[in-house]
Fold this protein.
Amino acid sequence: MEKPKVATVWLEGCSGCHMSFLDLDEGLADILAAVELTVTPITDFKDYDFPEATLGIIEGAVGNTEQLEILHKLRKKCQVLMAWGDCAVFGGVNTLRNHIPTEVLLTRGFIQTESTVDGVLPVHQELPALLPQVLAVNEIVPIEIYVPGCPPSPEAIAHALQEVLQGRIQRMPTGILHFD
Ligand code: SF4
């Protein structure tokens, strides 16, 4: 029988949610035996031409035009989307910039910082533009499953994955929402 295909993306986040997934250690073997990972940063896959998949997993919020495009592409190709971590679920620490105009942010970061000499604003056709605000993923596309936490514990991630692989939407036991 063909295994369910799973794609994962790393948007505006620190990679900690994917690291928490890898922290499943030997538990990873069971999950990876049950699914086929397609596009994922774990394999350093950078082509976002997603194949059709049962499940798409998102780490990180959406703060620039490239992330916005990736999220829309993932939504189009996946039956179910799962948001991993507070950045994807709520916007997380990334939203600290939301009350500051992007021009002010970029000027401070690239020109005015005390350690910068002759700074310039980075401009290139391949550089994605910042969005005016960082958004949680459900502010852009419908999301079926949320796994909050910063990062979510490996147990919470495993529970959510096992539930969805058995055709259920998880009800997360509160005990595994904390990182022990
Ligand atoms: S939720 Fe926490 S661990 Fe996950 S990407 Fe955001 S900051 Fe990193």
